[in-house]
Specification:
- The structure holds two protein chains of two kinds.
- Chain A is 0% helix and 44% strand.
- Chain A has no helices and nine strands.
- Chain A has strands at 9-12, 18-23, 36-40, 47-50, 64-69, 72-77, 86-94, 99-102, 106-110.
- In chain A, strands 1, 3, 4, 7, 8 and 9 form a six-stranded mixed sheet that branches. A three-stranded antiparallel sheet of chain A has the order 2-6-5, with no helix packed on it.
- Chain A is globular.
- Helices cover 3% and strands 49% of the residues of chain B.
- Chain B has one helix and eleven strands.
- In chain B, strands 2, 4, 5, 6, 9, 10 and 11 form a seven-stranded mixed sheet that branches. A four-stranded antiparallel sheet of chain B has the order 1-3-8-7, with no helix packed on it.
- The longest helix of chain B is centred in the last third of the chain and has 4 residues, at 109-112.
- The relative contact order of chain B is 0.30.
- Classes of the chains: A mainly beta, B mainly beta.
- The A-B interface holds A 2, 33-34, 36, 38, 44-48, 51-52, 57, 89, 91, 93, 95, 97-105 and B 35, 37, 44-47, 50, 59-62, 95, 100, 102, 110-121.
């Protein structure tokens, strides 16, 4: 049971838009701690996708965007491409647990 | 370019001990915190432990506190994770990752950090 809740899977056709949600609580996102997102292609290490809710590191396409409101954060991917098929994880800090916490991950299937 | 490379994983019996290492390059090692994050087979990511650049502050997940010890040798640019009393639940790929934080949060890095980059990971299997 992950502290941050994500849907196990989402899917979309090439070119479409998908949104992955990440729901927290008053001890993490609701307390104002930022949310960060990672992409993990099976068999490889996670890669930073978004930091501090909405910021893209250099090299991440602007097809990836994020939002955060209270205890709900979202990752939106537009113009889906086959290479986007991967697991996506949200991460924040939890003051009750005194540590970083992750969502359970969402697998994106590009149909 | 920042690079992290883990080593030391392998098969260990329940109750056993293992020490993981993470060799770092591409940045001024003693200026930055480092962390361990693990991923059980087919499961999600779990933060394990973090250590400040000076090694003056260490942090642990409840699941490993008292059994795992994080440390670093700043003269060797190497991070360590000593794991005692291992159980099957500790079976996972262990990643070394570099916490990053915006300057405005530098004094509270531990609460605002994200992880970038990550090493390729090393597999720890606890089994008899």
């Amino acid at each position: 049971q992950s502290v941050l809740t994500q849907p196990p899977s989402v899917s979309g056709a090439p070119g479409q838009r998908v949104t992955i949600s990440c729901t927290g609580s008053s001890s993490n996102m609701g307390a104002g701690y930022d949310v960060h997102w990672y992409q993990q292609i099976p068999g490889t290490a996670p890669k930073l996708l978004l930091y501090s809710n909405t910021n893209r590191p250099s090299g991440v396409p602007d097809r990836f965007s994020g939002s955060n409101s209270g205890i709900l954060a979202s990752l939106t991917i537009t113009g889906l491409q086959a290479e986007d098929e991967a697991d996506y994880y949200c991460q924040s800090y939890d003051s009750s647990l005194s540590g970083s916490v992750f969502g359970g991950g969402t697998y994106l299937t590009v149909l | 370019e920042v690079q992290l490379l883990e080593s030391g994983g392998g098969l260990v019996q329940p109750g056993g001990f293992l020490r993981l290492s993470c060799a770092a390059s591409g940045f001024t090692f003693n200026n930055y915190a480092l962390s361990w994050v693990r991923q059980a087979p087919g499961k999600g990511l779990e933060w394990v432990s973090s250590i400040s650049g000076s090694a003056g502050s260490t942090y642990y997940a409840d699941s490993v506190r008292g059994r795992f010890t994080i440390s670093r040798d700043n003269s060797k640019n190497t991070l360590y994770l000593q794991m005692y009393s291992l159980t099957a639940d500790d079976t996972a790929v262990y990643y070394c990752a570099k916490p990053v934080v915006e300057p405005k949060h530098s004094t509270a890095w531990y609460s605002y950090n994200w992880f970038d980059p990550w090493g390729p990971g090393t597999l720890v299997t606890v089994s008899s």
